[in-house]
Structure formats: structure tokens, C-alpha cells
User: Fold this.
Amino acid sequence: MKSRLTCNETLAQTAEKTGTPAYIYDLSVLRQQLAVFRNAFEVPRFSLLFATMANPSSQILELLAVEQAGACVNSTLHLDLVLAAGIPSDRIQFTASGLSVDQMRRLIDGQISVNLDSRRQVSQWLALGGGPFGVRLNAGSLTERLGDRLGFDQAEFDALRNEVPGNLVAGLHVYVGTNFLDPRDMLPTLRCFFQVAAGLPQLRYVNIGGGIGVDYNNTGLGFDINAFGNEVSQLHGLLSPDVMLFFEPGRGLAASSGVFLSRVTDIKRLQGTTFVACDASIAIFPRPLHHPESLHRVRPLRDVDHQIDVVVVGRTTFSRDILARCKLPLDIEVGDLLAFENAGAYCNSMASHFLGQPTPADFYFPIE
Ligand SMILES: Cc1ncc(COP(=O)(O)O)c(C=O)c1O
Assistant:
């Protein structure tokens, strides 16, 4: 399918209507990506949950609701958003750390499935009358390497199993890590995870999180979702076919459905570098600040011949307001439009009030 996001003319016309800066999405791309991700798995009981931290916009959530997808949320605000978008409570999993008593009460009242992060959280959940719950395992400790701060290690999980009746542990969750470009790098952790799950015959579900990477640098070596789905489906064969497999991608599902548009506002040379400023900032397009190692590809919305290396910066005084390091036309001009690709995930959802930037417009091409 040809995305409207790849057509410079269409994007330039859209920018005339929305103004800049703007996030432009193509919901057809999202729907197609959803189908690709779903088709990659072959297990008897499978459910795809979109990780809303990647992009909780109501248009995206409503499309997912229509397509019968679910949601992974980690805040009560996002829980409200997905319910309002029409995603039913039995297709939602709440996975976070440090839940407050109020949050737990809300999940219990709303019958929302939860994956808990510590033994203390489990005690609090049970004291509040919560029923069977899921446990998040720490990804690093599964393969005896340093992991992130989340979840149980093996010793804590063993201690928990001695403390609570086995049938209360209804699910196991893991999040292997972020932005993997090769499924083989995820598999050692997932193999260990499924081995632990295979030792728990009472489990109702396993949740393998997300982590599917995006080829931001356009190397052509994107994540092979079919190979991944095939491997995971085989690992699921270690479990009873009744065990539901939840997969909750954020980035891999949504990134390609959005671009960020900004207009050039200044060009200058300083100590041998060409700086191109535009009507944006890392405050409203924050991924480059958090992940300078995987910057977005930037495309000028007009035909170009010769290109030069430039640094694209925001229109602020923040020295780290660097949006891209890329090639742009030699004759780049004030007023030129730039499209930052793969901006559908972890971009608008990370925007902040820092630096006083106006909220970008957003625009959605509907399903074709
Ligand atoms: C619990 C959980 N699930 C899923 C995701 C989505 O991950 P990704 O965007 O890497 O697919 C995240 C992201 O932080 C997460 O914390």
C-alpha cells in the first residue's frame, strides 16, 4: 500500500491547511501494520494490545477499538482514554510499577487485568481484595545479565510463590527491551521466560511485551516480524494451548504511521557546521533528545540535487535542542518544509511544556 506520508505533494498541501509544526498520521498505515503484526503469530489464543505510551491519541485508539485490538496502559489517565475510545476492559492490561492504593482500587473496581511489579505490590493488591494477577519478570535477571528496574527476579518470584496460592498467579509478563532490530537478540530472554511459564500449569496468560524496533536510519534492515512471530509461536508450544499470548507493541506498530512536519526558519554556518533551524523543538518532538543514537530520517518536501551535511535544530536557546543530523539540499531555504519520518510513536506522546513551544497541530488521513 502506498502511504500518503510518502507523497511530498500531499504532505505539503496538508501543511498548508494545518500550519507547522504538525504531526500528520495515516490511519491506513496503522491498520496495515496491525494486520502484519497479527498475522505473524500462529497460536491458538492470541491478543494484540497496543502500548499506549507510544501514542495515546483518540483517533489511534478508536481505530484500534474498531479493529478489535486491545491496549497495554501504565497510567489511569491512559486507562480512561482507552475505555473512552471503546476498547473493552477485558482487552486491557495495566502494567506499571509503584501503583498507589487508589490506582489498585480503580483496577479492581473496573476488573482490569494487572501485572504487578513487586511482592509488596502483590500484598497490597490482595489486601484490597484484588483477585488473580499477573507478575512482571525482570528481563535481565532471566538471562543473568543486568536488566532494567522493573519486575521480579527469580529469588523474589520464588519467595512470592511460597507466599501466595499458586492459582492467584494468573499471568507472567516480560518486556525484553526497546527498539530491537533483530529478533534473534530478543530470543534468549524469551526462551528463559517461556521456560519459567512452562513450570506454572495454572497460568492463564503470558505477555511478551513489545520491543519491536524501527529502522530509523533507513538501512533497509528492518525487524523481521514474521521470523519473530514464528519463534514465539514455537515457544508458546511449551504451554497449554489455552494459555493466551499477549503481545503489546508500541513503537513497531505506530511509528511508521506518522510524520512530523516543520518549516525552516533560519540557516547559518558556525565553525564549519551548517545549522538549519526550524519551527520546532525537542520540547514538542522529543525523541531525538532521548535517543540521539537513532535519529529520525529527515526529508525535504521538494526535489533536490546536491545535499550537504547539516544539523537541524529547534528555535530555542537550549543547547541540546538538536532534532536531526542529516543531509539537506545545498540550496535549503527559509520556508522549506521538512518531514521527520517514523514519528508516529514516542514523539507527540513525549511532548512537554518545556521551552514554551506551541502545541503542534495534528492531522489524520482516514482509512482508505
Ligand atoms: C510494559 C510495556 N509493554 C509494552 C511497551 C511497548 O514497547 P515498544 O514500544 O518497545 O514496543 C512498553 C514500553 O515501554 C512497556 O513498558
